[in-house]
Structures are given as C-alpha cells and as structure tokens.
Amino acid sequence: MEAWPVRGIANPNGTSCHVGSALLLLKYCLEPLASQIVADAAANAVNDDVVHVVGQFVRHHDTNVKLLFDTLRSAVEIEARDLGDVITTFMKLINYFCQLTKGDDDDEHRDTKSNLASIWNQCCNAGKVHSVLLGNVKGEDGGNAATHRKETKPRCMPVPFRVNVSSRKQLSLIDMIRDTLQPQVVKDYVWENQSNSCVEIQTSRTLVIDNLPPVWLLHIDWFAPSPDGENDFGTLCVPSKLMTHRILDTKDTSSYYELIGGVLLSQVHDEEITDERDRRHYIPLISKDSVWYMLDDDEEPQEVSEERCLELFGGVSHGEESPFRDNGETVSVRGYLLVYRDPSQCEKLSFVPDQVQNPTCIDWTLPVTFVGRRLRVQWAKGKRYDGVVTSYNETTGKHQIRYDDGDVKEYVLWKKTIEWL
To answer: Which PROSITE patterns does the record cross-reference, listed alphabetically (predicted)?
Structure first.
C-alpha cells in the first residue's frame, strides 16, 4: 500500500461511519490531544483500555478495527454497530478522556485528573462568550417607558459552536455566524425589581464572543427551520480562511483562522426510507500539508482539490450533479462539522503536551498556554489555595483562576507567588 500522509478506516458496511469520522478528526485535527493519548498509552499513565487502543490507532493506525470499535462500544457507550450522529459520538469520546484520572484505584494519584482534560481545555475549550439582555418596557400608550440592560459573566463557549442555516438562499459562513449572534427574543423573562405596573416588557438576548479558542469547532446545523417553516436547505459559502475581525470586536485585521478539516453529511433523498438515520452517512475531509483528502470508509484516501472541498462543505443540493450517487439514489452532501485553527497559535499549541506533563516547563512569553493548568496560589498570611487557570485576557494580561472551592479570581500571574501542580 502506498505510504499516504493520512489513512482512513476500512468500514465496508458503512454503519460505523460516525465512529470512524470521530476518530479520524481526533487524530488529524486535534494533534496535541492525540499526541498526549499516545504518550499516556506508552507510559501507562492512565490505566484505561480506551486510551491504549486509541493510542495504538493514532500512533500506528492499527487495522484491528473490530477491537477498536468494540472497546469504544463497551467503555464509552458508543454504539459502533449502528448508525449514529458524528457530533454526539465525538463529544462522548472527548468527555470520556476528560473524565479520566491518573493511575488506578490503588494509586496515590487516583484523584488527579489526567492531562487530557487540560490539553482539551487549552486547544478547544478556551473560547469565552457572554450574553447581553435588553428589556424594553412598554408604557400604557404603547411607547417605550424604560429600558433594562444586563450583561452576564463570561462563560465557556459551547463546543462545538452551532451555526444555524435556516435560509434557502446562498449565504456565507460569516453571515450565518453573525446571524447566530443577532438578538434573539426571550419569552417570559422576569427582570429583577420589575414593576407590576408595566404593561409589557420585550426582552432580547444577544450572544457576544469574547475570544475564540485556538482550535474552533463549528457545527453547521442544516436542520434549523426556516422563517417560513419550510425545510428546503440552501447552500453555504465556506471560506478556507475566517478573518477574525469579522467575528470579534477587534482592530486587528490580519489575524485569521484556517480550515484544517471537517466532516461531510451525505444524505439520501428517498421517500421510501422512513428512518431519517438510515439516510445519513458521514465522510471526513482532512487537510495535510496543504493537500485535502477524503476518507470515505476506506484506508486509502482520495485526494481532492481545495476548491472541491469548499464546494462540498458548502452543500451540493439534490438538484445538482452529486458525486455520491448509488443505485440510482439521489444524494446531497453538506458540511456538518468544520474545524478551524488559528495558525498564529500553532506554536503555542505545540508546547501544550510538554507543559502539561512537566510543571517546570513554563514559557511566560506564551501566557495563553497556561489555560487548563493547575496551580497553588499564595494568599495573605501564607495561606495557599489550589485551583485551575480557566482563561486568559490578552487585553488586560490577566488570567482567570477557578479555585477548588468554586471561588473565581483574576490575576496578573507573574505578580503572584504561585506553584504549578
């Protein structure tokens, strides 16, 4: 077999495509996490069968697919023999790794989280959002009598971040992200100190992105109903680069995110197939060294041009010529999960596994890489408290610390007396 830079998973019956797609996405698009899984498996740092079989797959691309899938089926409760949803499967796998602890039941470190959770937090779970609530109070004459405003505290951005495609016309991915961030009506919201004399309060909630993670996963939801209630999906213009300033409130017009992979949703249009799941099939697309590959239930990949990949991610509707016709069936293909990466943070991401494993490996020139690390902070009178770094604000230069007792503080870390754990 030719030594391809990427390899797929042989899956002749096609039912386990959601599992194979999730594993290939982990291997090729989340390399810091995949590298840590390999390291943990080699060093027996985590006594867990899933880590060992997935580590073997990532490192050597073990062809024992049955053992791999059977292990996931029993340990992670991923039903590998039936059709499923690739996002659900992927997040089940990630959550399983993040819940693992070091050692075994008799080990003194059995209550210590594995490094996998920290790496996931630094790579994909470091995005922050908050909400702005606006309430327009209607007076008896129908005019606005007053306005309420409230901002919530920053919280973790959902992973993956869902973008609704509810229009039947062609739009850009940037437009759909902006639509997702538009004010949404909130029904029956009760404001603090709300007067009983108010005739009506119309409340809206606007989602604001504070910062993006180094690796940004986007779920393109093609199944959101359109405003007129119809469900006739359009197409989407998916860019190879997402310019950051078009999403965030920033003056930096040079920073961007590059598309490095994703999963296509292939759907059969046949009214005789009553179960919606039986119509679906998932196909990974992976970029390696600026070359795109399609991994459709076969170890040997198919090289695809970037232009064609973007076209498939954007949607080839059933009325057009589709590359996925079988037995006369009409099939449409659309991007279902996209993976974008900030290339300026690639160097930072390469430090992640080493820093997490080695507490003495600290690079103060890369403060964002501290996110996800545990530390001990000295307070007044010599008291010390343990916590974890949950975020970094580049504007203020402060890190947010969530202590084990639930308290949250922000510090300029180099000014504090700390010990990395």
So the answer is: USP_3
Task: Taking residues 315-325, report their average pLDDT.
Answer: 59
Express the helix, strand and coil content of the chain in percent, nearest 5 each. Answer: 30, 30, 40
What contacts 185, CB < 8 A, 6 or more positions away? 202, 203, 204
Q: Measured in Å, how far apart are the chain's first and last C-alpha atoms?
A: 46
68 touches 20 (CB < 8 A): no
d(CA 412, CA 400): 9
Distances, alpha carbon 275 to alpha carbons 213, 258, 312, in Å: 36, 36, 24
Three-point CA angle 86, 372, 6, nearest 5°: 40
pLDDT of 137 over the 90 cut: no
CA atoms of 253 and 256, how far apart (whole Å): 8
pLDDT, average across residues 47-76: 88
Structure-block tokens of residue 5: 């830079």
* Structure letter (DSSP) for residue 152: P
Q: Which helix (H) or strand (E) holds 353?
A: helix 346-357
User: What domains lie within the chain, and their CATH numbers?
Assistant: 17-123 (no CATH), 128-341 (3.90.70.10), 359-420 (2.30.30.140)
pLDDT at 25 exceeding the cut of 80: yes
Q: How far apart are CA 183 and CA 206, in angstroms?
A: 4
- Using only C-alpha atoms, the chain has a radius of gyration, in whole angstroms, of 24
Q: Containing H/E element for 179?
A: helix 173-180
Task: Output the CA angle 61-64-67, nearest 5 degrees.
Answer: 120
Sequence-distant (6+) residues with CB within 8 A of 162 are: 180, 218, 219, 221
Each residue of 356-366: pLDDT tens digit? 555 555 667 67
DSSP element (H, E) containing 42 = helix 31-43
- Distance CA(293)–CA(308), nearest Å, equals 11
- With a CB cutoff of 8 Å and minimum separation 6, the contacts of 56 are 41, 62
108 has a pLDDT exceeding 60: no
